[in-house]
Every structure is written in C-alpha cells, then in structure tokens.
Amino acid sequence: MGMRHIGYATRTIPKFLDPLPGGAKLVDAIEFVVAWARANSLWPLIYGTACCAMEMMSTGSSRHDWARFGVEVARATPRQADLIVLAGTIVEKMGSRLVTLYEQMPGPKYVIAMGSCAISGGPFYYDSYSVIKGGDRLIPVDVYIPGCPPRPEALLYGIMQLQEKIRTEGRRNPWKIGTLNQAPFGDPLAEAKKMWADLEKSRPAAPPAAADAAGGNGAIDRPKPKRPATEQFAEVARSPLPAPLLDNGTIYAYIIENFPEITLTRQSEQTVEQVRALGQEYLLDLTVPLRRYVELVGFLKDSELLDMNFLLHVTAVDRPDRFEVLAHLFSANQGHNILIRCALDRQQPEIPSLSPLFAGAIWHEREVFDLFGIRFSNHPDLRRLFLEDNFPGHPLRKDFDDPSRVVRRPY
Amino acid sequence: MTEQQAGLADDILENGVAMTVPPGFSIDRRERHTDEYFLNMGPQHPSTHGVLRLMLRMDGENVLEVVPHLGYIHRGLEKIGENQTYLQNIHLTDRLDYLSSHMNNLALCLAIEKAMGIGVPERAEYIRVMVCELQRIQSHLLWWGVLGMDLGAITSFLYGFKEREMITDIFEEMCGARLTMNFFRPGGSFADVPDTFIPRVRAVIEKMKTAIDEYDTLLTNNVIMHLRTKGIGVLPAKTALAHGCSGPVLRGSGVALDVRRSDPYSIYHRFSFDIPVGTVGDCFDRYKVRMEEMRQSLRILEAAAASFPGGPYRSKKYASYNLPAGSYYSQVETARGLLGVYIEADGGPKPHRIKYRSPSFANLSALNDLAVGHKLADLVPIIATLDVLIPDIDR
C-alpha cells in the first residue's frame, strides 16, 4: 500500500514540475539531495545464515565499525531496513523466507550479495541438492562481494560501491522482481571454454621467425619463471597416545561371550587375539543381525564393564545391495568407542528405533529417515528433519539424481 | 487435492480457532477451554544465532513445549564430500562450525592420519595444540559478546570483538584466512607459523589475563546477568548424557567429559589443565564453565609457548591420499563439544561415506527439556548458553 503511494509520488511529481521553467533543475537538485541522504544512511537488515555473518559482525563491531559509513541500526527485522546483506549460503528451504523478507522491506531497497555462496552457491555449487546457486536467482542484487568469506574491508568497500551507485543513479524503481528463480542453471565451465577459444582466435599471429633472426623486436631474452623448490619432508612414526582403560580385545571378548552371532566387519579373522593385534587405532566395527540390534545396544549401555553411556551418532551407509545402519557408542568415563552395524533390505528398509534407550537418537534417526529413507519402527516422531516434506527422494542414497537441483561436477 | 489442502480440511475449527496442532508437538489436538497458543520464532530472528526456527506452545508467557525445526542452512556437506577427495574435504569442514574451523580440520586430518599411519612431527603437534586453544578462546569471546547482546548489553559485544581481533590477526598472518582456515593437513599443516607467532601469542596471553577479569567485572558480577541466568534452563546430567550433549553444555551439568582428557589426541596429554564443571546445570553454570575454559586454554598456551620446539612442520607429503578400505573415526573437542568424523572408505581417493557428528546437533536436541516451564524471554539466554551454531547442526 505505502509502497504504491511512494512510487506514485515519485512518478507523478516530476511530471508536473519538469515542464515549468527551471523545474527539471529543481527535480534534479531534489533527487541529488535525496540520493545523497539515502546513500549515507543505509540501515541493514541482518540476514546472516553462515560464515559470512561472522565477518559481517566483525564489520559492525570494534575495529571496523561500519557506522562510520552510515550503516547503522542493524536489526533482524525488515521494517526500517534499506539494505539486506546476504551473508551466507541460501538453501531451498530458506529461499521462500528470503523473498518474503525482501518483499516486506520498504522501498527503495538494496541488496548486497556477500561472499561466494550468496553470489553463486560458492563451494556448494556442485553436487549440492539444496543450495540455491546465488541470491540473484531470488531477488535482484546490487553489489557482489567475492570472497569466502570476504574480509570486513571488502564489505566496507562493497558498501561504498553501493553508496556510489545510489548517488549516481538517483532514484530507481526497486520493486520489480523478475523471474530470476526460474532461470536455468548455467554451465560456467562450457562458457569459460568458449570464451578461451574465442580469445585464442582473436590473438594476433606470432611474428615470423625471420624477425627474431634479424635481431628485431622478437628477440627478447625472456627470463625463465622461477618456482620455489618443493619442500621435502621426512616420514615420521606415529607417536603412541595414552591407552584407554579397556583394549579392543577385552571389549570384543566380552561382547562375543554374550552375543556369539556378532562378526567383525571386513575382517577375515575373528579371534580375540587377532583383534588385539589390530591395535588401539582400529575402530571396533561389529556387524550384528537385525533381530539382536536393540538388545546389543541396550546391553552395551547397561554393562558395568563397558559403560557405553553416550550415543555419538546413528547414521547409515548405502551399499549396492543393502543399507547399513550404524550406531556409534562411546564411553564417556573410559574413552573407548564401538561401532555397531546392521544390514537392512534395500527395498523395505526398517529397523527398530534406539530412542527408548537414548533420547538423542530421536534426531539422529530422523536425519537418517530424511536423507536415506530408512524407517524406524516405534520412533516417537518420525518426520523429515532437514528437508521440506515434499522433497522428492532421499539425497544421500547413491542413486539419488535430481537434475533440477543438482549440478554434477564436470571433472 | 494436495497434502496441505487435505490437512486444512481436517483442521476442525472451534470458535474460530483451529483445533489441530503443528507437527512435532506431544499433543495431537489442542485442549478445549485453554488459552494455549502457538508461536513461531525464527528462522529470521536476532536471538536464534542464525537460521534456527522454533515452534513454541505457549500459555501466556510461559513456554509449554518447544519444537525446533532444522534445515534452513542444510547444504548437504556429506553428499558434496562423497564427490571430493579427502584433502578437498578439509575445506568443507571449515564451514561446519566456522568458529572452530581449525579443530574441524584437525578432526578430519586425525582420521586420515589414523587410516594411513601418518605420523606428526613435534613442532606440528605444538602448532596444532596452540592454534586450537587460541581458537577456543576466540570462539568463547564471540559467544561472550553475543550473550551480552542477547541479554541487552551491547558493550560486551564490542569488548569481546576487540580481543577477538587480536587472535584473528595471528591466524591471518599464519594462513591468510580470518575465519575459514583450511590450515591443517594430514601430517602437520600446509605452512609453517611465522616467526612472530610466539611473540604474538604471548601478547594475547598477557592481554587476555587482564581482559577476562575485566569481563567478570563487566558482566559476570552484574546483577541483571545473575537474575537472568541463575536457575534458568537447568539441564540434569542424566538428561544431558541421554541426549548426547557435550562440551561446556555437558560440563555445566557436572559431567567432566572432555575429549582432550578422556580420549586424548595430538599432545594434549602432555599439558596440565583443569576441566571446569558446573554443579546445577543452569545457564549461569554453563556461562562460568566457558569463562573458566578460557583461563585453562591460556594455561595450555603458556606452557606450549614456553617449550615451542623447532624442526619440520609436517611429515612426508603424499601424491594422493587413498584411504585403505575400512571405517575410521576420530573425535576432537571443539569450542562447542565433541566433534566426530566418521569415514567409510573403499580404497579410492574419495570417501564412500563421510559423516560429521556435530556437537551443536546433540546440544540443541535437549532444548525442549531446558526451556519447558520458563518464560519466553528466558529462551534467549538458554539458546545463547547452549552456544549452538546452526550450520554445525544442519551441515
């Protein structure tokens, strides 16, 4: 509502003033003053999602102090904001919120894309199924600041560039949002290759060899580029760390005494001595049949000797013929950890939940359900954790492919 | 009809109020004749430290239940990591918990070293310990500053950042980056520390010793601080362990779990330091644990600076790091708690599966237990003293 009125005023007032004698100059003068004022009091909306937000905070704090440039009243609300600094990666789930924030800002409004992620997706451009490849797919961006993350000085320079832009352009219509988010993915590598090929074509032909022989301009004794010698380092033996109270052999012996069907993953030998010989750095990796999975975890938790009272994580691995669910337990008092592995059918993967034993398992299992599509029976709240409910497929499966989201790494 | 529309059709209205509740709450239907309501907080919110979204079930100003919604910065690091070599994965770990990026790098490097049997020279070990402890202080300084700001005291933000920049300068001189370091490599680091490293560290130690006392007078002994944190968000040790909380959150509840001590890595076993623990497990205990941790880190730094050795800064470089088939795990104590890196290798240059067990993820999962029964305003110090970092949770 309000926006339309401002737009109406700025469109119509010059229409009346311009024809009057000296009117255009008056409009120009007013515009100059307005642009000057606008440029020197940019109030930012804090939109920090990731690492760049820290550098934005640094810019706002003691040493760099962006208030010197009129950037003040940094708030997390769009109400009084003129400027939104996109500090950090924008993912699909956040995308719609960003557009809402931008639309809620009163005009005129400006956008700075800070850092590689907000420019193009940055280090997450390839292979990511959730990152939006640049803030300008959602909202129009005025200034791009490269860096990962950009230094505070770079952000200050970007702000100065924006101020310059505001001063020179005067006023503009900032409420036009194009259909940028429908733009197809570019192929920067192919474009760069084409550009290089064009450059090669346009390069002037090499001077004839005769000119060199005649001692002309071609015969310059160019110095060979010097590269620093690669440093060589000697191999170093691993220094031993203090041994935990229980060694792997003792733990293994104690477990197979109670669960004889357990096997060591990827090891052909299965005796206690052989496990002990693998050393302390070997991660005790046990495969358990599905029917005894929860029982084993409960046993490890309650056992007085092993005292595995800490669930590190529950995760899964995708194998061509099966899923493997891994539960990783740790003894907070004694410092040893055990990995428990349980193979599942790939068609109908389902496994009992560990949430009755560890409250922390609830979120870990929701994550596995979200990213692998493995169901957990008697889980209290089995919903997706990270992705939207309507996200197609389960991205951490090896056969996941979604060309509308994922740009494959070309090398 | 889409799923959402179907949901709306089922949403039975009574006196103009929907009786169904948003997903994730422990109740199925809203109770009749109550003033309960649901409140959305985030993902764009100044006190959620990033893009955390909370759905709250409220009765007046009292919080009855909290349901966190994650994924607003879920970038799929683990999927990206599967398509990159082990060394290329190091720079991705920077972006997990960017305030502990050195420690994240270290966790991955330790796993690679374990798998390939790579040893680390003495000087490199010292560099690792010192750099990690510097970063722990740096991270806690930022936390301290932001905590003050969350409680309405902007001064602490400016003070915290002042000393933080001193440490940032050391990192910048050392590896060129201020935040995402990408400094450690299997067997050491990619470059040696400059000659100015030790003098600068000594300067930081000197400065910080007086600075922490200054912080105490500024914020710790402030009566508003006490009123807003004492008895707020009590986390019993049993609940904390069940949720897998770690770091200062768990230690604030009185469990002395510190990976540096209980599962030592690098050369932490050679240094003497205390593990501060709380007694009650409230916000103030977590606060005091972190303040004391800064002092302990200074102790480690002082001892390390006194015996900083010469020699090579890394061991032999390999043309490629192909981990033999197997499963490898390493864990470190970051500023937020226990960070684990689990790698499932199949012998190639890239991992078959790489999993980061991040501390903030587990710490945040206990939020509902902490916040229930408190006022909405108390949720802010609770989140601030959990010190969660959302990219670390979402990965």
Q: What is the helical fraction of chain B, as a range of percent?
A: 40-55%
The ordered string of helix (H) and strand (E) elements of chain B is HEEEEEHHHHHEEHHHHHHEEEHHHH
Strand content of chain A: 5-15%
CATH superfamily of the largest domain in chain B: Cytochrome-c3 Hydrogenase, chain B
Task: Indicate the proportion of strand residues of chain B.
Answer: 5-15%
Number of strands of chain B: 10
Radius of gyration of chain A: 31 Å
Order of helices and strands of chain A: HHEHEHEHEHHHHEHEHEEEEHE
What is the residue-averaged pLDDT of chain B? 87
Q: Which two chains touch over the largest interface?
A: A-B, 84 and 89 residues
* Count of runs of 4 or more consecutive helical residues of chain A: 12
Which stretches of chain B are poorly predicted, pLDDT < 50 over at least 5 residues?
Answer: 5-9
How many separate structural domains of chain B? 2
Q: Give me the CATH fold name of one domain in chain A.
A: Beta Polymerase, domain 2
Strand order in the largest sheet of chain A: 5-6-9-8-7
CATH fold-type name of the largest domain in chain B: Cytochrome-c3 Hydrogenase, chain B
Distance between the termini of chain A: 51 Å
CATH first level of one domain in chain A = Alpha Beta
Structural class of chain A: alpha/beta
Indicate the radius of gyration of chain B in whole angstroms: 23 Å
The percentage helix of chain A is 25-40%
Care to give the gist of this entry?
Chain A has 411 residues and is α/β, with parallel strands linked by helices.
Structural description of this entry:
Chain A has helices spanning 2-17, 23-39, 51-60, 92-104, 115-120, 152-169, 188-202, 209-213, 248-258, 272-277, 293-302, 361-372, and strands at residues 44-48, 83-87, 110-114, 143-145, 263-264, 284-287, 310-318, 322-330, 337-345, 350-352, 375-377. Chain A is of the alpha/beta class. Among the domains of chain A are: 40-167, Rossmann fold (3-Layer(aba) Sandwich); 248-377, Beta Polymerase, domain 2, CATH 3.30.460. In chain A, strand 7 and strand 8 form a beta hairpin. Chain A is elongated and about 100 Å long. The two termini of chain A are 51 Å apart. By secondary structure, chain B is α+β, with helices and mostly antiparallel strands. Chain B has two domains: 1-33, no CATH class; 77-394, Cytochrome-c3 Hydrogenase, chain B (Orthogonal Bundle), CATH 1.10.645. Chain B is 47% helix and 13% strand. The two termini of chain B are 34 Å apart.
